[in-house]
Amino acid sequence: MSLLIIWLVCLLHADVLLAQDANDTLESSADDAEHAAAEAGKVRIAATVAAILEHYKQADPVGIPIVQVPDPLETPDMDKSLGMANLKMMQVKAYGLSKFRIVSVEVDAKLAQLNLGVNLDEMVVRGNYQLSSFFSKANGPFTVLLKKVFVKATATLAVDSQGHLATDRITMDMTFGDMSMDFQNLGFLGSVFQGIINSSPHLVFDSMKPFMVQKVDQDARAAIDKMLDEKLGDRRLPNSITPVDTAIAMMRKMVREKGFDPYHLSNFNRTMGAFSVHLTNTWIYGVSNFYRVGNITVSMFNNTAGLRFQLGTQQISGSTQWEVGVALMSRIGHVQFSVQHLRVTVEAHQPLDTRQRIKITDLQLDLGNIQVRSDGAGTLDYVMEFGVNVLPNLLRYQIMDAIEGPLMQRGQELFNNIDSEQFIKDFAQKYEETGKMEFDVGAFMKDLKFDI
């Protein structure tokens, strides 16, 4: 969940760099400029992380410190035919755009789609107008006050024909709850104009909306494509599978490269009076054979980020050497086991106020057929194999339901030990030092004190 927040920070960071690059003039060589920009970016990302973390500690965070929203936003002159009259609006500026609240974020990983909902308490539009008809003309300043403005935007990524991940389309719509207008010096045309407005109250707003939508489309598309180009470079992706499945394939490769498949478990030793059990040389194979079962969704509502994913594995197998002792007697043997598949559904939430901890809200397990082959216990081998191969397979759904609660509780206890704020800051610091966004799974598990 903390990685989700880091990812959102990086998206915002790319937007800031785009705005700043448009105003910076570099006089050094191209190589020096590129190096300086990279070094400056590393410094800014740490400051960006700190600023956002502090910002979302507020009860009602308005805007985002690092996002440079033009306020006021200047719009070009607009002409609108009103039937009996023609309205021209000039020197139009929209105020209050920086006072936005992000009310919802939904990321559909399968569709590579981002849905964003933003509201403004109010937006004020000021400018000059000229209203003319066949028999009269009026001009002067005007003010339009929009309240409860809601902006809904959707951005979709896709792999183009060259194999590059880029923005496919962006759609946006703006609505409002209430509007009031003040056109001064209307004179004789006042009653005519008021009648037109009463029949079509969205008239003035609809005249300005196309430019605002086009402006957001251009800026957002440029920012997203710049971020993707910086992070992916010339890396080509297959267009036959979704980007998220490509990312999961890269994660499988990383798991193998990090030495987690096969995975070696620590030795297990338990002594209860005269009875003792020792498990050694335990290996699990196939942990990197995971894939997406359902969808992966990321959301943000009420200043709380959420993540829900469904992953499954192919067959997982393993082996261990065991030793069982009773008083002065002991037996040594070997066990091989396999699980047809394991599917996990997890949902967790992290308040954007990172002083609070991650909370696991849902955990569902689906375990496939289990097979065990034991050697070393003599006749007891058959009893053990029967006990494991038959009973758990008959009752595995009841067993999974029974262990989901305790496992979820244990997972929550582990996540309660994570200081989300410090985790994100450490991640940003490591990025400054290395220039790479890497996640050390081994160190993470060690910090959790996760013992098996």
UniProtKB/TrEMBL annotation:
Recorded GO MF terms: lipid binding
Classification via Pfam families: Grp7_allergen, JHBP
SUPFAM superfamilies to which the protein is assigned, alphabetical: Bactericidal permeability-increasing protein, BPI
Signal sequence coordinates: 1-19
Keywords from the named record: Signal
Domain of life: Eukaryota
Protein name as it appears in the record: CG3246
Native species: Drosophila busckii
